[in-house]
Amino acid sequence: MRISSAAFAIFGVAALQTVAPVAYAAEPAATIVEFFNAPFNKYFITATPSDWALLDQYASIGWKRTGVTFSALTQGQDSNAKPVYRFFAPGVASHFFTLSEADRTLLLNTPGFIYEGIAWYALEPLQTLIATNNPCVGGSTALYRSFNNGGNGPANHRYFEDFSFYQSYAAKGYTLEGVSMCLPLSTAEKRLDATRLLKQASFGPTPAEIDRVTTIGTNGWLTEQFAANASRYTPRAYTPQTRPDSCVNDTTQPITPTSYCQRDNYTLFPTQLEFYKQAITGNDQLRQRVAWALSQFFVISVTDVNLSYGMGDYQQMLRDNAFGNFRTLLEKVSLHPAMGRFLDMANNRKATTTGASPNENYAREILQLFSQGVNLLNDDGTDKKGPDGLPIEAYTQDEIKGFAKVFTGWTYPTLAGSTPTAGLNGSNLAGTMETRETYHDVGTKDLLGSAVAPAGTSTFADMTGALDNIFGYANVPPFFSKFMIQKLVTGQPSPGYVQRVTNVFKNNGSGVRGDLKAVVIAILTDVEARGAAKYEPSYGHLNEPVLMITNLARALSAKTDGYAFYNSGGAMAQGVFSAPSVFNYYPPDYVIASAGVIGPEFGIFNSTTALSRINYAQSTLYGSIGISTALYGATGTQFDWTPYTSIASDSNALLNRINEVMFSGKLTASTRAAMKTAIDAVPVSDPTGRARAALYLSIAAPEAQVVR
Amino acid sequence: MNISRRNTLKALSAGALASGLSGFTLPFAQAQSAPSDYKALVCIFLFGGNDGNNVIIPADAAGYAAYSAVRNTASNINIAQSELLTFRPSNTASTYGFHPSLSALHPLFGDNKLAVVANMGPLLAPITKAQYLAGMSRPYQLFSHSDQQAQWQSLVSDQPSRTGWGGRLADAMAASNGTNTFPVLTSVAGSALYTTGNSQSPLAIPSSGTFGLSGLTATDAMTQARATALNTLLQQGKDHLLVKSAAEQTEQAIALSAKVNPIISATGSSVASLFNTTGNSLSQQLLQVAKLIEARATIGLSRQIFFVSLGGFDTHTNQFNTQQTLLAQVGSAMKSFYDATVSLGVANNVTAFTLSDFARTFKSAGTGSDHAWGNHQLVMGGAVKGGTMYGTFPNLQLGGSDDVTGEGRWLPTTSVDQYASTLATWFGVPAAKLATVAPNIGAFASKNLGFV
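Output (structure tokens, whole complex):
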């Protein structure tokens, strides 16, 4: 027989009764282990160790651990906890768990159900459906229940703590039944959530930072990060666009601060050096990480901006505005001369009598890449569809032409100490562009929608009006929100996740649109980012090369002058600030053809870069990193091996730490066993060698490199 | 320890040429000689949108007058008539000229080894200017880099595609390679949609340097234990799709590197001296392709598809100098590659062809030009029926019969589908399977432009 749907209806009502919210801190004493039987197509969860032993013996008939576990309470652990009753329906050979007394009463009187006793103890949810609020008190997490309706085999439930994984079951024909109970997070789970947060929102966890975030919690850490002072790229003096012949690299020792004139001014060396130094050692981790994401949204690249004074000035601007407002940021990006050079808005002129049109480059890319995307979007980030079922283009060529006219009349900043002229300035990549009305198109211009910029508008006012027009358009919140979720948390976010962040972009709660700080908070505190382990099989994202590099350095609590790192990403297709074009290193919608899922970072993951990544671990962990004689004031790079070497004699203890810091707790038993053999092959007398082997393998391990 | 595990270790640890020995379930055929009907296609993608209007320029009086009426010296993107490398296609009464930077390629046209396909672009179906202006039958996101790159590479212009036509061509020809699982597609330019098939996925090799894992060659127990663990961990956690994808690519890379590295790292290539790779990334990439073709007997495939690229063609400003530099690289690299195929005795078996995002506006945007549509492409090889211009050269009048926006964005008169179908047919795809490569080919009257 099938489990009666009436039981579930009653369950739903009963579960709506709520308990007063209290912060929950008790350490759970029980573990729920999930099993799956493929031949029977049946999931089963149990907290009873004798069940585990029995099912492990039944592997031959298909029972297998899924790897999913939950924490639970035992009797007497907590006075607020309720017993969870376990029923068995022999007709369908399936179990059902409920903490509802009403369910229990009903099922006790329903033929076909056998009461098997109390399975574990759990907390009652505050609500059974989830929109934006967490249904469980802090320190506990929701257990969602789905039901297959008997549609693909015998009636069976599957339970989830992972919200996105739970949601993905709708597409498999399961009914999503809501929150069945709240389970306590164990300290281990809280530590893994802290680790996950640090992978999502910083340049990687250090062992000490994991301890701290576990103690102060997500909100405590975010508060601290928003208050931290921004790291600064050292401002560098203007240098002419063309290198003077006198500016060369003089390798004569001892070197001086100006020995490497060419490298320090006509390459991105100083900026890349400081990027890594500050990413690895800076306290403003969240700001830097968000700025790094923004640098892949508002892309400029060494391809046209290879002078460090300009690149540093632009990247600092992104950092300084990372927690500000999107509209402000859009204007600062638009008027920055490095962007002006990169996308040709600097010295862009109205149509000339000799037949040249205003340049369309910035006009097109500000719409396509910096604000709208190419298609009209719903607030949940999915494409709107036309009557033909196809996406609807977000703007027209006439609108591009309109914006091209808008963005005429701007020139590079006048050099310090010079007097502005009425003419156009030569390249100067720091500061803010200046207006030159003579070159501005004062005709009417088509903007987005049916808006038209009136004739006779000044250069500045035209720009302001156009950016307001862009910012007000409905595509901006989902387009930007989805991108930032992808950069920080997961490459294939659910529509619900995008929708929740979009809502915050549209209104931060105080009526402000485009509050980036609020957007960042919404992304990082969402149920799809926080809580217990995530099991949805496309959740998370591959660590892009730069993050792989900084993760390893921070796992070793590196102190560095940056020299060892500045050029490391190039061989993995991600040199810092060196994207091939304004389309970034890889597209946000890159689909892994063989898997049929979106994995943006896989756009630069191929057989060449796959090996480069592992070879990077080899050279970093096994090579020698000296103090460069080509860097004035070099201090080199020092790793702190202590968190690993201090426990390295016990390979299990070492693997526990590696699992936490590098694998986000996702180290499978077989990988663990393989790594243990490799570690144990190194003598106990060489603790650093043991740590090296463990860290090397964690860089090579896809299980560790997919951040979840 | 089973055989495949042991052999994998060998590949991992020795980096040896492991034909037929390498593990990771990729048995390579033990071919001792090149397949009798070896054929290779080489896709040269010019990223950014190469301005075809300055690659092929009408050179006779009337034609050049039409050109210079718009691209005059004040446009800042004028090529002087005296600079043109002139040629008269066998099928036209008019004379044309190549950009002066293509001096290396120019003689190949006269030798009938180089063909021009004029005014080609992504299309849903043949289209008139009136239809375009009425908003009918337009490929999606015209003039957008990412979308137009995708359409040239995928032949799908009504919605984004997950596969490219090189990949689908490899799918269609996979059977001709028998049990050999060496990838049909090799990219020397990283990941590209062009090389993604439904079942075939590309090998990506570096354009220089070694290709393989370092630091695992020592035979001591510690290193070997690490290599074993590396092999094992690539088999785990595959219930997560991203883990699985990363693991499979890494696994394939390790296995193939043992085979490929000796080929591309060898110093004894007979064709290396033909290439001037200094400051020329495309030349470097095509040298890698030539080395793999040189080693075709070792690789043992009868069909191979290669992808190489050069970027920097998005010349909104400073076009005159930028394109001059880039086209000189293209010309030199392509000519070297052709000479290499001659030297290897496979000139008739290898066809190279160009693709690019789009052409650029005929009208100047100051010192450069903006994104446009129909573009000219080059096809090169011993099998090419060169010395001829295929397709129809556009009317260069702004706002004229071929211009859809007034800035000189040419309405293509030949579709990329036809271009690809022609190449696919030469490659051996039977007419009945052409639609698997070019799904939209049925919309066009001619499935074979006849240039090869």
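The longest strand of chain A covers residues 63-72.
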